[in-house]
């Protein structure tokens, strides 16, 4: 079993990347501070083993549309630090939804994935490149092929775990809490 807490980060948008990181870290730690103990208590009370405790956040590309920062990996690092403080197994949402086209922030996020996943332990990333209705964003699909390879290479010393925490989707459900 798994329990996933969804957290909206829309109020963490800030043109200053450092302030955005601070807001994201503070919000995750404030809201999820008792998640693990609560889940463990419920697990004990009902005798149901809950193997993973996860957090899923608003796709980070949406949060970073206001910043001019090209490297978004500091946000992943802030998410990872928060995950370690609250004790969850995974935090997902270092993500972009590009099936209808990619914005500057979406491209910055995709370019940041290899470094972000190499610099973190608990962060998972996803990119939705297509949908039945919109079709496949072939530019994004091609770009992501290279990103998957770069992510594996960036974590080669750890059995390429970065690529194991990265998913390229088509038809990702809205508000999807998926984590690799």
What does this structure look like?
The protein is of the alpha/beta class and 180 residues long. Helices cover 46% and strands 20% of the residues. A hairpin with a 3-residue loop joins strand 4 and strand 5. The radius of gyration is 16 Å and the shape is globular.
Write a brief caption for the model.
This protein is about 45% helix and about 20% strand. The chain has about 180 residues and is α/β, with parallel strands linked by helices.
Write the layout of secondary structure elements.
Blueprint: E1 2-7, H1 17-32, H2 35-46, E2 52-57, H3 60-63, H4 73-86, E3 90-97, H5 104-118, E4 123-131, E5 135-136, H6 138-154, H7 161-164, E6 166-170
Helix pairs in contact: 1-4, 4-5, 5-6
Number of strands: 6
Shape: globular
- Largest β sheet strand count, sense and barrel closure: 6 strands, mixed
Task: Estimate the mean pLDDT confidence.
Answer: 94
**End-to-end span in angstroms?**
15 Å
């Amino acid at each position: 079993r798994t329990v996933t807490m969804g957290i909206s980060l829309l109020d963490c948008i800030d043109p200053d990347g450092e302030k955005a990181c601070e807001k994201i870290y503070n919000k995750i730690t404030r809201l999820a501070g008792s998640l693990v103990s609560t889940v463990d208590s419920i697990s004990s009370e009902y005798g149901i083993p809950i193997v993973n405790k996860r957090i899923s956040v608003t796709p980070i590309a949406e949060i970073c549309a206001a910043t001019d920062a090209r490297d978004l990996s500091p946000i992943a690092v802030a998410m990872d630090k928060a995950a370690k403080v609250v004790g969850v197994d995974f935090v997902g949402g270092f993500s972009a939804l590009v099936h209808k086209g990619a914005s500057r922030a979406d491209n910055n996020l995709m370019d940041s994935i290899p470094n972000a996943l190499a610099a973190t332990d608990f962060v998972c990333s996803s990119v939705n490149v297509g949908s039945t209705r919109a079709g496949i964003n072939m530019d994004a699909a091609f770009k992501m092929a290279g990103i998957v390879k770069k992510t594996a290479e960036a974590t080669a010393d750890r059995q390429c775990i970065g690529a194991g925490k990265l998913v390229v989707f088509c038809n990702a459900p809205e508000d999807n809490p998926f984590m690799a």
